[in-house]
Amino acid sequence: MDTNAPVAVAIEDVTFNYGRFKALDGLSLQIPKGMSFGLLGPNGAGKTTLIRLLAGLLKPQKGTVSIMGKSPSRLTAPITGYMPQLHSLYNELSIRQNVGFFASIYGLKGDDKRARVDSVIKLVELWDRRGDSVQNLSGGMRQRVSLACAIVHNPPLLLLDEPTVGLDPELRVTFWDYFKDLTSRGTTVVISSHTMDDAAHCDKLAFIRSGRVIANGTPEALRLGTGKETASLEDAFLYYIRLRDNAHA
Ligand SMILES: Nc1ncnc2c1ncn2[C@@H]1O[C@H](COP(=O)(O)OP(=O)(O)OP(=O)(O)O)[C@@H](O)[C@H]1O
Ligand SMILES: [Mg+2]
After folding, report:
1. CA-CA distance, 166 to 147, in Å (whole number)?
2. What is the C-alpha end-to-end distance of the chain, expressed in Å?
3. pTM above 0.90, yes or no
4. pLDDT (tens digit, 9 = 90+) per residue, 148-189?
5. Which residues surround ligand 1 with Cβ inside 6 Å?
6. Ligand 1 centroid, distance to 24 Cα (angstroms)
7. How many angstroms is it from 174 CA to the middle of ligand 2?
8. Residue 41 contacts residue 208 (beta carbons within 8 Å)
C-alpha cells in the first residue's frame, strides 16, 4: 500500500437529503488510489447513500464528489464497478447470461467478453452452476454473481455495498484474498460493512454515523487513537462515537 498514493475519490462537504431527511450531513472524505477503503457504520448511517453518489445514481444537493478527477456520471460508469446492497440481477436469466449482460453494458464484445465472463464466474466459484437461473441459487451464491457482474469489466474503482453479507467464512476469506489481489494491482476498492472482521482487512477506514465521518485512518491508527493498545476496532468505534457526542453535549 502506498500511503502517498494519488486520490481516487474526493468527497467535499457533501449534503444529501431525501425530502426533508438529511442522510449525509456535510461529509468530506478522500480515498487514495490502490487501496481497500472501508465505510463502517450502523444501519441508516448513510453508507448506501454515499456509495450511490459515487456511482453517479444520486447527486449531492451541496458539496462535490469526484471520481479520478471527474464528476460521477455516465462517463465515469466504465471506470466504476458497482455492487448494490440489494441485488440487481435478472432472476429468470442464468448466471452466465446475467454476467454477460453486465459485460455488454460495459462495452465488452466477442472473445474478450466471453473470456472475461468465464473468468469471473470461475473466480466466484460458480462455474459448475453457470447455466442455472439466478432464482434457483442460494442468497450467498447470488451475492457472488452480483460481485462477478461488478468486476467483469475490470474497473479501476470498485464500489461494493456490503459485499460480504451472507457469505460463509470460507468464501469471505476468498473474497478478501481477491480484494487484496485487486488492490495490489492498483484497483481502488470501496467497501461498506457493519462487521469489524471486514474492517480489520481494510487498508483504511472511515467510521460513519448520522451522515458524517466521525473518524478515519488505518485500522491500527484508529485502534491506537483510543489510547488503549488492547482496544479492538469495535471499542474504537464506540470510543469515537462517545468522543463526538461529548464534544456536542
Ligand atoms: N429512498 C429513500 N427515501 C427516504 N429516506 C431514505 C431513502 N433511502 C435511505 N433513506 C434514509 O437515509 C438514511 C441513510 O440510509 P442509507 O441506506 O444510506 O444507510 P446505510 O448506512 O446504507 O444503512 P444500512 O447499513 O442499513 O444499509 C436512513 O435514515 C434511511 O432511512
Ligand atoms: Mg446500506
Report:
1. 13
2. 38
3. yes
4. 999 999 999 999 999 998 888 888 998 899 899 999 999 999
5. 18, 21, 23, 41, 43-49, 85
6. 10
7. 22
8. yes
